[in-house]
Structure formats: C-alpha cells, structure tokens
Amino acid sequence: MSTLLEMTGVRKRYGGVQALDGADLTAVGGEVHALLGPNGSGKSTLDKTLAGTVVPDSGEIRIDGEAARIGGPRDAHALGVAAVHQQLSIVGDLTVTQNVVLGLEPVRRWGFLDHRAARDRAAAALERFAAAFSGRLPLDRPAGTLGPGEQQIVEVAKALAREPRVLVLDEATASLHKEQVEVLFEVVRELRAAGVLVLFTSHRLDEVFALCDRATVLRNGRTVGTVELAATGEDELVRLMVGDLPHPADLAVAPPPAGAGAAVLEVRGLTTDRLRDVSFTVRGGEVLGLGGLQGQGQSELLLALFGAARITAGEALLDGEPLPLTSPARAARAGIALVPGDRGRQGMFASRPIQENLSLASMHRRALGRFALRASSERRAARTMVDRLQIKLGSPADPVSTLSGGNQQKVVIGKWLLDQPRVVLLDDPTKGVDVGAKEEIYAIVRALADDGAIVVLNSSDNRELAELSDRVLVLFEGAVAEELAAAAVTENRLVSSALRLAPGESL
Amino acid sequence: MNVLREIRLPGVQLSGTATVAMLVAAVVVNSALQPNFWSAYALTSNFATFVPLVAIAVGQTIVVLSGGIDLSLGAQVTLSAVAAVQLLDGRLDRLPLAVAAALGVGLACGALNGLVVALLRLQPIVATFATSFVFSGLALVVLPTPGGSVPIEVTTVYRDAVLGVPVALLAILGLALLWWVLRRHRVLRHVYAVGGDPEAAYASLVPVARTRVLAYVLGGLFAALAALAVLANTGSGDPFVGNELTLASVAAVVLGGTALAGGRGGAGGSILGAIVLALVTNIVFFADVPTTYRQLVNGAVIILALALAGIPALQKRRPAA
After folding, report:
1. Do B200 and A91 touch (CB under 8 A)?
2. Measured by CB atoms within 10 angstroms of the end CB, which terminus of chain B is less buried, N or C?
3. Domains and CATH numbers, chain B
4. Phi, psi of A20 (to 5 degrees)
5. Which SMART domains does the record cross-reference, listed alphabetically (chain A) (predicted)?
6. Which pLDDT belongs to residue A504?
7. Is residue A251 a part of any domain in this protein?
C-alpha cells in the first residue's frame, strides 16, 4: 500500500519547552497507527500539527506524496484530516446537532440554515452510538448538559461526519465506558477497511494492542521508532517508550526518619466526586509522590487536602488533629501550602511585583496590629527568599511576569515557604520549566523534606517522581491502585505500572 | 482538577420569566401613573420613543453574543443620523439617498470596529470606547450644532397608525422579524459558537475572525436603523443624540437575559429589556420626581433591576461548600 501520510522533522517550541524536536511519522491508508510515548513526549502536539490547531516551527508534512501546508483547521479539513483532541471542541451552549455540523452547516440559498439536513446528518453520525445514549439520541439537547463520555462521543461523531481520509483520535477513549469503547473500535475497524488512516493515541496499552496495526513511539519530542505491533511484546514497547537511560544510582534513599517528633499526616477514606476512598500516611521528612496516568485524581487529591474541593467522606489528620478541609484559608492557617500546577491562573499575580507575590501568603505573620504592613520587613522577607531560592531577578519590584517560567515557579513556592508550612503540596511544580531551573526546584523540594516538612508531590514526569519520591502512590480513576516503596520507585516501574492498569482492573 | 477554576464568575444572565415579570411590573406602574396610558395617542407616542433603543439593543445583543461589546454604538447612531439629515435637507425626494447614507455609515463603522477587534486583537471594551470618540468627533464635523430638518411627511407617518396599530410598534415588530430571520442564518450560528467557545469554534472550522467582524457590522447596521428612527421621531439632527443610548443598550441586553460572557441569550429578551428601560424613564417622569433628581432615580431603578436580574445567576454559581 502506498504512503498516505509522511511527517518529517517536525519541531515546535512552547516558550522554554521543546515539545517536538524533529518528530517523524509515516503511515499508509487502511491502517490504524498508534502514537505512543510517556507524558510530555509530544504525541498531542504532533496530532495538533496535523489537525492545524498548532502550526509547527519547522518540518514537512506530505499527504499522498504532495507537500501540504496546514496553517489552520480549515486547511487540514481540505486535505481530509479530522481530529478528536483531548481538549474537546464542543460548544456547550449549542445543541448536539449544532455541534456535529458546526463549521460545515448545511445551508439553503443565501446561507440560511437547513435544519432538517443538519438533523439528518447528526443523526446519521450518532446512530452507531445510540446504545451509549440509552437508545434516544439527544439531538436537541445543549451539548454542555451531557456527561463527559457522551460529549466525547459527540466529538467523535463530529469528526466522522466530516468523512475524513485521516482520522486523528487523541485519547478519544479517555472518558468512555467499556461498551462505548467497543462501539468506537468497531467503527474504527470499518474505517480501516474503507482505506482510512486512523492515528490512535492512548495511554492504555491493551487498547493499542487490540486495535492498532503499527505504532510509532515518541520520546522527548523525537521519534524513537516504528514497530509492527503483532511482532512486538508489551515489555519491548514499554522499554522503547522509557528508554534505556541509566537510572540515577543515588536513589537508594534511606527509609524516612520515622523518629519521634516528626509530623504525621494521616488521610483516611478521602472521597470526593473524583476521588474514591483514598487512604495513606506520610511523615515529616518524607516525599510522597503521586503517579499514574495524568488526570486520575492526583490534582484533586491535593486540592482536597488544601480545602478546595467538596469532601463527601473521609478525613485527614495532622499529628492526630483533624484538618479543616473546608477552605484554602483555613488549610493555610493549619500549616498546609499548595503550589498549584497552573501557576498562571492559581499561583500568582503576574503583573504585581515579585516582592508582593512572595509576601502575600505570609503577611499575617508580619502584620502590625493585624493590618498595618511595614515596607522594610516585607522587603527583608522577600529578600531572604530570593536568596534562599536563588531566584534570578532584576529587582524585587519588577512584576513576576518578567521572570522565566522556572523562576516564576520559585516565587510561587517561596511565597508559601515564608509561611513555614508543615505540609507542602506540589502539583506538577516543574511543568513547562527548563532543565536548569528544574534541578534547582528539586533541590528546594529536598531541602523542604530535610527540614522536616511533609511533602506530597504530583508530577506528570515519571523521572521526576523517581528522583524525588521516597514512596509513590499510583492513582487510577481516583483511587490508589498501587504503592511503590523506595527501592521500587524507578521510572521504568512507574510507567509500566501506570500503563498496565486497564479499566476495571485493580490490584 | 479545576475546582478553583469553576468558581470564576459566569456571565450575568437571567431567565426569560424574570424579563417578562419586569415588563409586566413596569407596565402596571406606568399605567397607574401616566394618565391615558392606554389611549391611542399615548401608546403611539410611547412606542415612537422606544424604537431607537430597541434597534440599538438588538445590535448590541449580536455583538455581545459574539463575545464582544460595542461602546461606540451610540456614537454610530449619532454619526448615521447627522449624515442622513444633512443629505435630506428637508426634501422628501432625497429620502432614499439619506437612508442609504445612514446604512452605509453604520456598516462602515461596524466594519472598522470589527477589524480593530478581530484583526488587531484589541480589547473590545477599550477599542470601541476609542472609536466612539472618532465617530462622535466626525459627527460634530458633519453637523456642529443641532439642526437640519426631516420632511414633515416622514415624521407624520412615523406617528401614524395602520389599522389602529401604531407605525412605531410595526417598526419594533419589524426589528424582531429581522432578528428572527438573522437567527436562521449561518452567520448568527457562528456568532453563538464563537461567543460560546472561540477555541472550540476555531477547531471546528468556524471562520472566527470573519464572524467577529460580521457581528460588529451587524451591530452597525442596527445602529443605522436606530438613527433613522431617531430622525423620524425628532424631525431634526442633533450631534449628541446617541450619547445615552450606548450604555442603555448594554443594560437592555443584560435585562433581556443575554450573558455578557457571550454565546448565550438572544435579541428577543433585549427588545423587552429595552422597553422596560424606556418605561422606567417614563415612570420617573410621571411620578413627579423633581427634574434635578430624575437621572439619579432613573439610574437607581436600573441598578435595582440589574441586581434582581442577577439573583438567579448568583444562586447557580454558589461554589461547592
């Protein structure tokens, strides 16, 4: 069969992060081609360059041997590419029908909408999935009122309605039930028989083996290789994804100092709408990692401990005292600090001075008579932290937005250190941070633990978890699926542990 | 994961029932205060004053639905009106020319705003505030002091009635019909999609920038229609006539239940909202509020109405525990 799609040397840089660093992909019509790699390896970015939602810095895309210029989703559509992204393109206020035909609405003369044709087209695209809606297609319901799985199906139907030659499915099964996945696979197999190329990205290896013919593996934005899945074992595939990099030997961490005086955080049966019965104990001086696939409840667990989620059951005790899990302000007073993953939105005031950002969370410690602030003590506190964290800056009076990503993140961490927390919750602290700053942040995390703080670290980077954690809880669908203790915390082990958990399977 | 993010404010939006309830209340109070409220003369003259605000509110609705806002709509009304009245010069035979000029000015102003917002990517609230000075300034150049005249035939027909139905009411129904037609067009569907989620719309092949421009152009079209109504109602030109209409149009949109965040609502509610606002002005007048306090009371009543309007939205957004 002749080559349908050829991508060569695709590069894309986001700020300080090289998401794609010369990725290649060659695929033929009539195959289901898996795109694999650990978190942050560039799979989604590669998918997006093909769908036109990301324009690469360099690289070549050929379709049917002809050079293709994809400057936007409309170019991709003209070339026969349709995509289902992790981030759905559903407009919640429009109905299901309106969403399925969005951008390609059937019209009568002068651009007036043909409602009947639109309904027919949406019904035809969704019919296959009727079982997922218990038989009745919600064609006229606002799409925003559907559940996550149903929205995902609407998104798939929307892509199918475009009758693509190349269909990109990026984590399209993430929120589907088993039966819904089966229907989707059936449809994909039909498309394959009709000569369509399906690019399939999934964290679930069992799905990849069940559905795909070949797989291209990415690592750090580069293509590592393409394999025939029928001739490849699971271990071999995991090794390709993780690489044979030597593991840092200095990891033989001594068991945490369980001695007297160390603080103890005990979480019992914590349950929210996205967490199921999470229990664990962690001591001062220990770094507890949270691993697993992304979005399995790690961030929710941190938010819940910080009092920013609604708890339906369970409790958390710090040194035997129940923690108030009702508001971030009360959590902070109880000695808990959260360094959020989305620092731009939740962690800082980008346009305010560095000094002000640093001093904000701990102001109450320096306030005179509860409300007056003295500029000199504010400055001194900020200065201490700038020195301690080696934040590279022009002047503490500059806005935080003038700093690099890594130094911004240090400000977000430093703001809580001034409050001398007993529990530090870190949510993907090095996301989008360059390598040098990463190392410095690692040093800060270690120093925190050495000072006796309890550190809970969520990270999408398995190497980071392996390097920093004394123990790792692997989360799956909101529950603790496995606990890896010191010696077992290796990157290899983490990836395979996260990937081998099929839905419905537990340990 | 996004617990913190979900607490952000959704656009203020109120249900259709609240708008209708306010309209009923305003009509009841007004008819109690205004002698002969239901008489043919009073109805005709009331409706005649409503039309400009109704027209501009429909235009503002379209811009707001697309995720923007147009603070220059009032200035566009002024500029369209003075351009038309200068061309008219009291002559009936020049009416088609003047109408065409008004529409042309509105469309051109809308296109300018759209280009500034969609292509230069300036904040709509700031960009249109700036262009409003350009448009008002031009209006002063065209007609430095109030003046110009509209043929008597036009003003007479405007205050007439057809088979007992005031012409001005027909004009309002015509505006509603125009909205009904637009609503069935692809452009308006794209306006809703872009206002609802611009990134999803972009990924779904909607021409986002073009849709934004068209929303402002449609806003300008309705501003021009408002200008024609102003001329027919007052019979002469005034280079300051549109000043108060801008913020009134935003208030009408909110009272009518369209989310300021975009993507949700419709012009039907805004038309009712515009009538409520106009009735409030009437009520304040007939309640014998001293002239000095009229504006103050008017503003207070509008704030009260907007606050009432916000209550359902407040209840919906109460965050988790």
Report:
1. yes
2. C
3. 38-317 (1.10.3470)
4. -125, 130
5. AAA
6. 40
7. no
Work out the pLDDT band at A367, boundaries 50, 70, 90.
low
Helical (H) or strand (E) element with B184: none
Distances A52 to A74, B205, B313 between C-alpha atoms, Å: 8, 10, 37
Instruction: Please give the residue range of the domain that contains residue A112.
Output: 89-163
Does some domain include residue A227?
yes
Can you point out the beta strands (E) in A178-285? 197-201, 214-219, 222-228, 264-272, 275-283
Lowest-confidence segment of A245-254, A425-434, B202-211 by average pLDDT: A245-254
CATH number of the domain within which A232 lies: 3.40.50.300
Measured between beta carbons, which residues in chain B are less than 8 angstroms from residue A311? Answer: 321
Residue in B4, B65, B211 to test binding to A, most A beta-carbons within 10 Å: B4
Output the furthest CA–CA distance in chain A (Å, rounded).
81
Band (A365; pLDDT cuts 50, 70, 90): low
Tell whether A505 is within 8 A of chain B (Cβ): no
CA–CA dist A304, A315 (Å, integer): 10
Q: State mean pLDDT over A368-386.
A: 74
Count of domains for chain A: 3
CB contact under 8 A, B186 and A105: yes
What does the pLDDT read at residue A46? 93
CA nearest to B131, candidates B79, B91, B85: B79
H-type alpha helices, chain B: 3-6, 16-33, 40-65, 73-88, 95-118, 124-142, 152-158, 167-183, 186-196, 198-203, 208-234, 245-255, 267-286, 291-317
End-to-end alpha carbon distance in chain B: 16
Return the higher-pLDDT residue of A464 and B317.
A464
Among left, alpha and beta (phi > 0; psi -120 to 50; other), residue A362 is alpha
Is there a contact between A445 and A429 (Cβ–Cβ < 8 Å)? yes
pLDDT attached to residue B2: 35
Picking from A324, A339, A357, A322, the residue whose alpha carbon sits closest to that of residue A421 is A339
Residue A287 half-sphere exposure toward CB, CA atoms < 13 A: 29
Q: What is the pTM of this model?
A: 0.74
Out of A182, A213, A243, a domain closes at: A243
Same domain, A239 and A367: no
A274 and A217 in one domain?
no
Same domain, A40 and A3: yes
Instruction: State whether A348 and A396 are in the same domain.
Output: yes
Q: Among A103, A138, A163, give the residue marking a domain's end.
A: A163
Mean pLDDT of A45-74: 92
Tokens of A278: 């999470």
With H, G, I as helix, E, B as strand and everything else as coil, classify residue B269: helix
DSSP E strand stretches across A64-149: 66-67, 81-84
Residue-wise burial string across A437-468, b where 16 or more C-beta atoms lie within 10 A, e elsewhere:
bbebbeebbeebbeeebbbbbbbbbbbbbbbb
> Both A290 and A206 in a single domain?
no
Chain B residues in contact with chain A using a Cβ-Cβ cutoff of 8 Å: 1, 3-5, 184-187, 189-190, 192-193, 196-197, 199-207, 263-264, 320-321
- Contacts with B189 from chain A: Cβ below 8 Å: 94, 98, 102, 105, 113
Tens-binned pLDDT, residue by residue, of chain B (321 aa): 333 333 333 344 455 677 888 889 889 998 888 888 888 888 888 999 999 999 999 999 999 999 999 999 999 999 999 999 999 988 899 999 999 999 999 999 999 999 999 989 899 999 999 999 999 999 999 999 898 889 999 999 999 888 889 999 999 999 999 999 999 999 999 999 999 999 999 999 999 999 999 999 999 999 999 999 999 999 988 988 888 899 899 999 988 888 888 898 999 999 999 999 999 888 888 888 888 887 888 788 778 877 776 665 555 444 433
The answer on A109 and A23 residing in a single domain is no
Quick check: B277 and B249 in contact, CB under 8 A? no
Q: Tell which of A54, A77, A94, A311 to mutate to test the B interface (max B CBs under 10 Å).
A: A94
